[in-house]
Amino acid sequence: MASLGGRRTTFLTGKTVTFIVLVLGSVIYLMPFLWLVRSSLMSTGQIFRMPLEWIPKPFRWQNYPQALTAMPFFRYLFNTLIVLVFVEAGTLLTAPMAAFAFSRLRWRGRDLLFFIILTSLMIPYAVTLIPTFILWKSLGFVNTYLPLTVPAWFGGSAYYIFMLRQFFAGLPIELDEAAYLDGATPWQVLWKIVVPLSKPALITVAVFTFLGVWGDLMGPIIYLNDAKKYTLAVGLTIFRGAYSTKWNLLMAASSVIMIPPIVIYFIGQNYFQRGIVMTGMK
Amino acid sequence: MKKFETKWGIMLALPGIVGYFLWVLGPTIAAIFMSFTNWSLAGKPQWIGWENYAKLFNDFIFKKSLFVTFYYAIGSVVAGLLVSFFWALLLNVKVPGRSLFRTFFFIPSITPSVAVAMVWLTLYHPQFGLLNHIFKSIGLPALRWIYDEKQVIPAFIVMSTWTIGYTITIFLAGLQGIPEYLYEAAMLDGATWWHKLCHVTIPMMTPTIFFNLLMGVIGALQGGFTQAYIMTSGGPNYSSMFYTYYIFLTGFQYGKMGYACALSVIIFAIIICLTVIIFRTSRYWVYYEALRK
Q1: CA–CA dist B160, B113 (Å, integer)
Q2: Would you say B4 and A186 are in contact if contact means Cβ atoms under 8 Å apart?
Q3: I need a labelling partner for B226 at 20 to 30 A (CA). Which of A26, A234, B180, B184 fits?
Q4: What pLDDT does residue B156 have?
Q5: Is residue B139's pLDDT more than 80?
Q6: Which of B 216-245 lie inside 8 A of A, CB atoms?
Q7: Of B136, B226, B119, B172, which is closest to residue A30 (Cα–Cα)?
Q8: CB contact under 8 A, B16 and A154
Q9: How many structural domains is chain A composed of?
């Protein structure tokens, strides 16, 4: 493994300096989180106090229940989970199907079609935004969850199909051939052989999908106009508008919305890092 | 090619293929078509030819948002590449707690953009924000940050260097792909770490830099929506009117769908041109030998 200085000339001092710089960098990168948590446990008075105070006095734990009841938090959470479940299910069903067809079956036009699908990575979402909205509006499905969930049932995204295809292509084809000799169908080969061997890639897709749904702001803003249907991300922006002076509650609500992605990240960390690399490499 | 493979191949790929036509190709063609109409939420759309495009020339906000978006894209891509390359180099050194450090640098990138915007809203707060506290404590004047026309884009560029975890991860993978013998050969020639960086690491990393540059440019030109929506509303005085935010306002706030489509076609054309330019110029600076296995 190549290190910055090469192995033998890396003196202890070089490593020490690296270590110290990394500690300082980590402090800088974690500072906004510390600031967030610290502010979320203070009174608004203490947040504004000069000189700067880092330790809440007293710890106002009640900010959290207050923030969560000031907005219909559980309603938003429930809505977000509904969207999430349907998007995950659609993506994890149809993206592996397409990836399998594009990597482990040979048929005419396969590579051309795959290339065409890949071109969608180049098309900015801003271009498709308005016609897609008009389509949903003319179908009468604005203000439902369909515009946010149905597209996931059509391959998820070219990005996921690409990632899974790269992974599937790396598995030995003899596995499939043996199964076909035993009379298995491609459907069975996909779900009983290929998918169980592709957990890292599928977990990566699942985590990306989660992060996408959890943080999506534009989609819910455009498609949902009934406040009861809002997701957490939109809910937080509404909260900000309504309680613009209650910085402590806003910070508490913001910390809560950050927790699930961080937990998911820690669970899927090892797979996830490999997944990002897969998309960046040939 | 067996017969059942064709049947199953098409069947399994069908949702993805249909999805491509429904959600990507169809809407893209529709957007080009709609950009020649005065489509709005009310009333029948009419074909108005190049009128929307002609209007762009007199649209002050369009020009401003194009400028703002390019300013942000150039700043955030250059800063992002430099900062993430720097951290990737350090995170590639075997020091104790390395995986923990990697986690620390990555976590901001998985934070929902809405929450990121909320946090930075308070970091940049002119009265109680952390950054002004720090500035004052080291004797620098307090800034207005996102509330100032001149400072808002630099402030957003700084903010963008907080969420570079994906770029760092891809750089790290690239660094790990550099064969050790190149460093050993350089060492035999008595190279210092600086020489190794300039003559081994950077040339060998050009394919990875190329990838991150391309993704960065495409992403940054479409970026800024959440920041504008939550933090500045495109202000002050349109100085953070990011292009996607302007499209959103035009289409969904003012209901001028046709005009918004013309705007989106322009950014699409710009992204295609830049992609072609980046690919074309890559042969002069990307070390392709490294791509061959």
Answers
A1: 11
A2: yes
A3: A26
A4: 96
A5: yes
A6: 218, 221-222, 225-226, 229-230, 243-244
A7: B119
A8: yes
A9: 2
Find the distance separating the first CA and the last CA of chain B, reported in whole Å. Answer: 28
* Token digits of residue A157: 């995204």
Q: What's the mean pLDDT in B157-179?
A: 91
Eight-class DSSP state of B97? T
Task: List the single range of A7-21, B118-132, B213-227 with lowest mean pLDDT.
Answer: A7-21
CATH architecture of B59-291: Orthogonal Bundle (1.10)
Whether residue A42 is found in the same domain as residue A102: no
- Retrieve residue A179's tokens: 């199964």
Task: Give residue-wise pLDDT tens across range A114-167.
Answer: 999 888 888 888 899 999 999 999 999 999 999 999 999 998 888 899 888 888
Give the list of residues 6+ apart from residue B195 with CB closer than 8 angstroms, or none: B186
A124: closest chain B residue by CA:
B268
Using CA atoms, how far apart are residues B211 and A142, in angstroms rounded to an integer?
37
Residues A33 and A169 in one domain: no
> Is pLDDT larger for residue A98 or for residue A275?
A98
Q: Does B189 touch chain A (CB under 8 A)?
A: no
B9: nearest CB among A5, A21, A107: A107
Is A89 part of any domain?
yes
